Target: Beta-conglycinin beta chain-like
Amino acid sequence: MLSLSYMHLMNALSTSYVLEQVATMSILRARQFPLFLLLISTLFLASSSVNDHDQECQQSICRGIFRNSLKSRQEEDPRTEYFYCWQSCQTSEDTEECEAACRERLDGQLEKQSQKEQGGEDQDEKPTSNPNPYYFPKSTLLNRFGAEEGGYVVLNSLTRLSPFLRGRIKNYRLALFLTAPGTFVLPYHIDAESAFVVSAGKGTLTFVVKNKKESFKIEEGDVIRVPGGATTYLINHHSSEHLNLVQLIRPVNIPDLFEEFFPGGYKIRDREDYSILDDVESYYSVFSNDILEAAFNTPREQLEKALGQQRPEGMIIKASKEQLKALSKQDPSWWRKLVPWWSSEDTDLKFNLQSQKPLHSNNYGKFYEASPQEFNQLLDVNVSVVIVEINSETMMVPHYNSKATYLMMVVSGTGWFEMASPQFTLPGSEEEIEYQEDQGEQRGMYTKVSGKLSLGDVFVVPAGRPVVFVSQNNDESNNQNQNLRIVGFGINAPNNIRNFLAGQEDNIMKMMESEAKQLTFGKEMEQLLSNQKQSYFVPLSTQKSEEGRNHSSPDWLQFKTKQ
Amino acid sequence: MLSLSYMHLMNALSTSYVLEQVATMSILRARQFPLFLLLISTLFLASSSVNDHDQECQQSICRGIFRNSLKSRQEEDPRTEYFYCWQSCQTSEDTEECEAACRERLDGQLEKQSQKEQGGEDQDEKPTSNPNPYYFPKSTLLNRFGAEEGGYVVLNSLTRLSPFLRGRIKNYRLALFLTAPGTFVLPYHIDAESAFVVSAGKGTLTFVVKNKKESFKIEEGDVIRVPGGATTYLINHHSSEHLNLVQLIRPVNIPDLFEEFFPGGYKIRDREDYSILDDVESYYSVFSNDILEAAFNTPREQLEKALGQQRPEGMIIKASKEQLKALSKQDPSWWRKLVPWWSSEDTDLKFNLQSQKPLHSNNYGKFYEASPQEFNQLLDVNVSVVIVEINSETMMVPHYNSKATYLMMVVSGTGWFEMASPQFTLPGSEEEIEYQEDQGEQRGMYTKVSGKLSLGDVFVVPAGRPVVFVSQNNDESNNQNQNLRIVGFGINAPNNIRNFLAGQEDNIMKMMESEAKQLTFGKEMEQLLSNQKQSYFVPLSTQKSEEGRNHSSPDWLQFKTKQ
Amino acid sequence: MLSLSYMHLMNALSTSYVLEQVATMSILRARQFPLFLLLISTLFLASSSVNDHDQECQQSICRGIFRNSLKSRQEEDPRTEYFYCWQSCQTSEDTEECEAACRERLDGQLEKQSQKEQGGEDQDEKPTSNPNPYYFPKSTLLNRFGAEEGGYVVLNSLTRLSPFLRGRIKNYRLALFLTAPGTFVLPYHIDAESAFVVSAGKGTLTFVVKNKKESFKIEEGDVIRVPGGATTYLINHHSSEHLNLVQLIRPVNIPDLFEEFFPGGYKIRDREDYSILDDVESYYSVFSNDILEAAFNTPREQLEKALGQQRPEGMIIKASKEQLKALSKQDPSWWRKLVPWWSSEDTDLKFNLQSQKPLHSNNYGKFYEASPQEFNQLLDVNVSVVIVEINSETMMVPHYNSKATYLMMVVSGTGWFEMASPQFTLPGSEEEIEYQEDQGEQRGMYTKVSGKLSLGDVFVVPAGRPVVFVSQNNDESNNQNQNLRIVGFGINAPNNIRNFLAGQEDNIMKMMESEAKQLTFGKEMEQLLSNQKQSYFVPLSTQKSEEGRNHSSPDWLQFKTKQ
Model:
C-alpha cells in the first residue's frame, strides 16, 4: 500500500480530455520510467493497492475515452489537472523533469483556454453534457484548497452537474478531506451545516463555538457532526498514515454554495500560476484599520507586526511533534461524566457507525445505516449516514429506496453499479429536458445507468430507482482490501424503506398474492422467486468463473438513445 | 347514466384547436350518426348525464374557441387527442369508419407537427400563454398511460402550466385514475408520496412495502394514503361500474416530476403510432444477465422463459372473475385488533370523508374537509382533503382562505367559479411577468378570474383570493346528479381559516366596529350586511328565474387587459 | 425634530441618477429658499435632526454618485421619485412652484422612459448591477401605496435586488409603514404571514379573523404578529406624531410576492399621472351582479348605492376624533383574564422587545433579540426579531452568526457597517455568477462590503460573514437621538450562535489552545487578544480624536475587483 507505479500516476494524467494526443504521448513516455516502489504522497492514490497496473491501465484508457465525451464545465480547469500532475511527480525518480512536463502541459492548456476566451474558432464546439447524470467519477471533484500536505476536494453543485438532480438533493454538497501525516488544518468556519465520516486514519478534530471548545479523537468509521458556523481545526498526528474524511455539507445561505472563512492565513495575491498552493487570507484583513485598532484595543503597528508572522502555506500545514501532542489531547471526559448536564447535547456529536449492528448483513456483505432518529445530531441536516461493505465478487441485490435519495462515495475497493432509470436522452438544452419530461410516450420504459467504482467516485441513487452494487475482484492475492466500501448520505431518510426485489427475505415480490404475481409476471414466476436462498448480498455466479471475467468489462454506459 | 350520445363524443373531438376546420367537419358528420343508446367505454364521459347534448354542444363550441387561443405546449400532442377519439369510436355504431377518421386526422396532425419541427414557416407563430392562469379544463390533462381498460391522466406540472403558480403548490401534481369494470391495474411504484380520493365506484387497492401487504376495500368518498415508493395494485371487481380515483402526488426526487416503475410488463418498442396502448416495461429488464442470474439464482434460459409470458396490454388489464375474487379479499382485521401494536400506524391509512361531519353546511350544500391534524397520514404530504357538494342553482358565498391554496377537480355536476385576483395581463415572457410584479402602480386593482366547471376540470384557488363556486342546473328532470361535486386538496392547510365575506355566520365584515365599517364602506353598508340570513351556501336569486338563464352564459374569462 | 431644512429635502431629490444635471440644478435653486422652520409632512425625513444640512449635503452627493452607478430596475420608476418630490413641496414656502418643478421633471423622465421602451438608441446601455449586493439604501424602497396621509414602502424581492441572495432569505420581504397623525388605514389582508415592529409613535392595530376581532394598543418597541390572511386595520390617534412600523412579510403563495386585498375602496382608473395617490379598489367589485345580489340578498340598486359612497382617497385616510376614539378602545382584558382559555393562543401576539433583558449589552450599547422559542408567534414565520442600539462613536465588535441571516433596517441615527464577504466581482450575467461560483482559485479571499447607514437603509448580514456596526456622531449638541438604532429579522434563527471575534467575553479566538493560536496567527497574537477589556460594544479609539474625523468618510465600497 505504500508503493505505487509511476505508470499508474501517468495513466491518471492520460485521462485528460483536453489534449488527448499529449496524454497518449505521456503514456508512452511513462513506460520508460521505472514502474514500482515509489513512495506515496499522492492523495487519491494513497489507498490503492499494488500490482494492479495493467488492469488500471485499461481502466483509465476506458475512462479517458469516457471523459473525452464528458467535457462538463467544472473539468475544464487545467490547474486542477496540474495539481495532480505535480503531486504525482513527487513520487517520480526524476521529480524535476516530471514537473517541467506538467508545467509545459499547463502552459499549453492555459494558452489554449485564453484563446478560447478571446472568442477563437472553437466557439461552435458546444460542450456536450455528462451522458450519465447520476455518476461523477473522481476526476469531476473540484480542487478547493490544494496544499502540499493534503487537500480539500469538493463535488460541484449537483444542479450544475446534472439536469436531473433538481430536487432536495441540490441543497447538499459532498467533499473529501485528505491530510498527510503530522499536519494541522487551519481553523475555519463555513456558512453550512456539515457532518464528517472518517474513511481512513486517525486524528483529532476540534471546534470552537461562542465560549466552548469541543475536541474529538477520530478514527475510521466515526461520524462527527459539526454545527454550522463552528470554527473547526483538525490534526493528523499519525506519523505515516493519511487521515481522510468524507464530508456532507448543507449550506445555510445559498442552497448549493458555501464559503470557507479563515481567521488566520496569508495570501500571496500574485503567486505564479504553477503553484499548487491555495493560500488562505485572514478575514480580519478586510476591516478598516480604525476598526481593528478599536476592536483589539491595540495600536496599528503592534497589530501589523503580530499578523505579519503568518506564512503562506495553504490550508494544511506541517506541525511539530510537540504541537501535535498538545493538540491531540482530548478534553478529559471523566469529569463530564460526573457532570453530565454540562453539555449533554454534545455527547452524541460523534459515534462510530461500524461498531453498530448492521441493518442488512450476511456472510457476503454488511450495510450500516444511522438514521437521524438514532443519531439525533443528524436530524437538522436531515440525512442518514451509510457505510456499505461488499465482499469481492459479490453484489447487493436489486432494491429501491422508497423515499430517500443516496449520495454515495467509494472509499475503497472497486466494482460497479447498475441502476434502472426512466429513459432519458442526452438533453442539449433546458428546453429539451422539459420536452422530454412532458412526453407521455416514453413513460414506462427504462434505461440502464451504470458506472465503474473506485476510490473517490461519486454516484447518486434517487428514490424509487432499482439498483445493484457489485464488488469486483481486482486482486486475488489480497483478501482484506478487496471489499468494496462505500460511504453514503441518505437525503430525506426519515421513514425510508429499502424494498428488495430479489432474495429470500424482505423481497416485496414474494409478498404479492399468487393471482397478482400471475397477472403481473405470468405463471412461472412464483416458483422462480424461491430459488434464491440468500438475502441482501449474494455472490456472483460461481459456476461460470470463466465467464465471470466479463464482469470486469460489461458494456459500460450503454444508453438506449432515441433516434 | 349508461348511455350517451355519440354527438356528445364527437363534440369532445371538436374541441381540438389544431385543425379547427376538420373539427367542425366532424361535428357535421357526427350529426349523421344515431345519437343515443350507445354503451359507454369512454372514461371522462362515463358519469355525464343523458339529454344534455344541445347544451353541451354550445359549451364545447365555446370551449373550442377558448382552446383555440390556448395552445399551451402540453396540449400539442395529437396522440392524446387520438386516444380520446379512438375511445369515442368504441361506442359508435360504425366503429371502423370512426377509427379511420381518427387516424386520418392524427396523420394530418403528425405530419404538420413534423414540418414544424423541421423548422417550417410557422416558427414566428409564438404560442400564446394560457389566458387564465388558474383554470385548467379537462382537455389540458395529459394522457399518461392509456389502455383499453382505462387510463391514467395527469395534470402537467403547475409551474409549466402557469407563470403564476410558482409557490409551494408547484410541488404537487394532480391525476385521475379511471378503470373499467373487471380490471387489474399492474403493480407499480412511483418516486412520490400520494393520496387517492375515490370519486366513483368500488374496488380493492393493495400495496406492498418491505415485508408487509396492505389491502383496502374502497368506495366513493374514501381517502387512501399510499406511502411513497409502495408497490401498489388495484382491482375494479364491479361488473358494470367504473372505479375512478382522484390522486394527489408529491414527488420526492424532483419537485414537479414523478415516474412510474413497473416490476412486470412488456413493451413493444416499435408499435405503430395509432395504438392507444402505452405499454409498460419491467424494470428488471435493464439489469445485466449476470446480475439477474445471480439475483434470482436461476439460469438465464429459465428466467427468459418465465418473463417471456408477459403480454403487451398496457397498465390496466382484464382479469378473470376468479382472480378478481381472490384479490378483493381484504386482510382479515379481527386478529389485527387482537394485536393492535402490529401495525397501529396503518390503521388510519384510509377513512371516508363523506361520513364525517361537514365543516360548513346548510340545506343548500356541504363542505367536508379532513385536515392533516385529523387524518395523521396526510401530515407528511401536508395537505387537507376537501369534498364540496353544492345543490343545483346554489352557490358557496364569497370567501377566502387565510393560508391554504386549493387545487380542485370537478367530479360531477356543472357550474362555474368566479375569483378576484390581483390584476395581471397576459405575459409574453418571463421578463414581462417580472415587470408586472415589480410595478407598484397596479396594486390594489383586481381582475375577475372565472371558468366553467364540469367533470375533469381543474382550478386553483390561491390563498387570499376571494372566490365563489356556483352550481348550475343543467337538467331539471334529474335531481341527484345535478349537484356540483368538487374534490380538492389544500396545500399549506394547517391553521388555515376560511373567512366568509357574506352570509349570516362567520362573516368577517360583520366583526368590524361600526366606525371601521363606515370609514371603509360608507354609512349604509352596516344595515345591508344583515340582509342575508343564510350562511355558507345560498340559493341563486329565485325571483328572477327568467334572468337566471343568464347564469349559464356569463361573459366568461373577461379580463381587463392593459392597452 | 419638528423642523427641517428645505435644503435637506432638495438634496434628497438630488440623489436622482436619471437626470443628474437637473438634480444638480435643483440643489443650486434650492439654496435660494429659506432653510428652516417648515412643518413636516414628509415621511422618511420626519425623524431626522436639525442642523445637519452640511454633512447631509456631502452625504447625499456621495450617494448621488453611488446611485448613479446603481441603476437597478426597480429604481427606474420616476413616479416614486415624483412622490417624494411632491411630498417635499408640502413643506416648502412656495408649494406651487415646487410642485411645478417636480412635474416638469417627471414629464421629462416619463418621456425619456417611453422613448426607451420604443426601442431607442439606449438599448446598448446595459444596466449595471448593484455593486454591493448586501446594501439597499432607502432610495431602493418601492412606493407601494402612496397617500397624502402616509405611505407604505416595500423593499423589492431580494432575489431581484441581488444575485447573491438566493437562499431562504428570498422568501421574506421587508416593508415600512408610515402614517400621519389622526389617520385610519383601510382594512386589507395580504396573502402572507407578517410581523410588525413599531419603530416610532403610538396607535391601535386591529385584525379580524373568521368570527374574532383582536385589537392591540401599540407603541415603540412593540412586536405584533399578524396571522396570514387576517383582515387588518390601523389607527394613528396621536395628534402630532407619526406612527411608523417596520414589517416583515413571508408570502404564502409565491415565495417573494404578496398582494393586498381591500374589501372597501374606490379606484379612479384614469387618474392623471401626477397623483401621488394609489387608490384601492374593493375586491367585491369583480363579482357578477347576480352573485353579489345573491350573496348579500339585496337588490342591485341598493348595493350600488351603498358601495357608491366610497371616496377615492388611497389606503390611508383622515379620520375624525370621534372615530379615532372609538377605534382606539382596546378589547377589555379583565374578562379575558377571567376566561383565560378563550383566546389563550392570542395572548402572546404582542410583546415589547425593549422591555426585555438585552442579550448582549454594556455601557456602550444594547442588543435585544426575541427568538422564536421565546415568542412563540414568531415560530411559524421562523424568525427572531432584533433591536440594536449603539451609542454614538461606538461599534459592535466584529462577530459572525453561525446559522442566521439578518435582514436589517436602520430606524434612527447614522453610522456604517463593514462586512467580510467572499470575494466577488460584479457579475454581468447569470453565467458570470455561476462561473465565479465555480472558480476554486478565488477561495479563501475576502472583500470588504460596507455602506453608510441612516433611517430607511436596509442591509443583509448573511450567516458566517464577520461584520461590525459603527455608530457615527453626527451632532455633538444632542445626545439622545444620536444612538444608531437598527431593527432586524433573523432568518433561520433557531439555534443561531453569535460568535464574537474580539472583546473580552465570548471571543472564540480566546478559546483555542495556545498551540492552535500559534499555528494559526503566530506567537504574538495570544498576548494581543487580552488587550481589549470590553465586550460586545467598544468605543472608537479616543486617543486619536483628530484622526477620528476620518470615520465619517472611509473609502466606501472599495471592492477588490478582478482585472
Remarks:
- Residues 360-425+444-539 of chain B form a domain with the Jelly Rolls fold (CATH 2.60.120.10).
- Chain B has two domains: 73-103+131-332, 360-425+444-539.
